[in-house]
Amino acid sequence: MTAENRYDTKCIIYRRGEMRIGSIGGRAWLVTADGTGVDIAEASGGRFASAPQALYDVWDEFRVWAAEIGIDRFAPVDPASFELPVPRPRQVFAIGANYRAHAAEAGVAPPEQPVIFTKFPSCLAGPNDTVPIRHERVDWETELVVVMGREARNVTAAAAWDYVAGLAVGQDISERSIQRLGPMPQFSMAKSLPGFGPMGPLVVTADEFANPDDLELGCAVNGVTMQSSRTSDFIFSVGELVEYISHLMPMYPGDLIFTGTPEGVGATRKPPIFLKPGDVLTSWVEGVGTLVNPIIQEQAA
Ligand code: ZN
């Protein structure tokens, strides 16, 4: 990939593995693996807007600019200040039963086509945000999140990574009673309550990984590991998901795909375990980052 060569040879700070995009104070920041960053609108003299979402509409142009910025512009940043890095995606795709072991624990056969629903964008939350709950059966689902960097239509699986801006950690938090209300599953409602879509902490470019199709991921509740798996257990890879979706409808820059959760959710345990106020939910993907989301009691409006 030409971009990779550029980082390796022309700019000391963008060695392979160091390009991350975040939001601090509602503004887009370029952040390095060593914990320094720069405000993108300021550093570019206004060439790029401060709104984090706008960056994905000009992703190719942004990457060329970012590869050339000098190391002297960067200053230390506080990871606790990171906010939701992709705040207003046009579309959020989410995939059900996409890990073999999770399909097994849920008692469903491995799907022959991707099972797709949406998380409404209003549920998205930041990497350090609290999650307010008022129901009894709130469950965790750690997921790898794909952030699109180009408009994609009829893309092949082999070409799909060229359309991806980067990866983030996500939680597809799910209220299992609402999910099962009525005769058909209510995935989109049950998984879109306010705060039920934490993601971040940064968007990490995919070329940083030796194999972006085999990443360790998991989550813990109050320090006790509940999920631990690898994305190589996917039934449909990132490439296959982009191919399938982009043949049905356009995918836009900044769109998200919550790619499904591995085994170890709370609802299928015996007895079941659910989140309660006071819990701290920690979620990670190897090389991508960690979310730390305290669960709190929702206050009456
Ligand atoms: Zn999920």
The CATH architecture of the largest domain comes to Alpha-Beta Complex
Q: Write the CATH homologous superfamily of the largest domain.
A: Fumarylacetoacetase-like, C-terminal domain
Give the strand tally: 18
So what's the CATH class of the largest domain? Alpha Beta
**Whole-number radius of gyration?**
19 Å
Whole-number total of structural domains: 2
Distance between the termini: 51 Å
| CATH T-level topology of the largest domain | Fumarylacetoacetate hydrolase, domain 2
Helix content: 10-25%
Can you list the ligands bound to this structure? zinc ion
- Major β-sheet profile: 11 strands, mixed
Q: Mean pLDDT, nearest integer?
A: 92
> What percent strand?
25-35%
**N-to-C order of helices and strands:** HEEEHHEEHEEEEEEEHHEEEHEEE
What is the overall silhouette?
globular
Which residue ranges are poorly predicted, with pLDDT under 50 across at least 5 consecutive positions?
Answer: 1-17
Provide the structure class. Answer: alpha+beta
The number of helices is 7
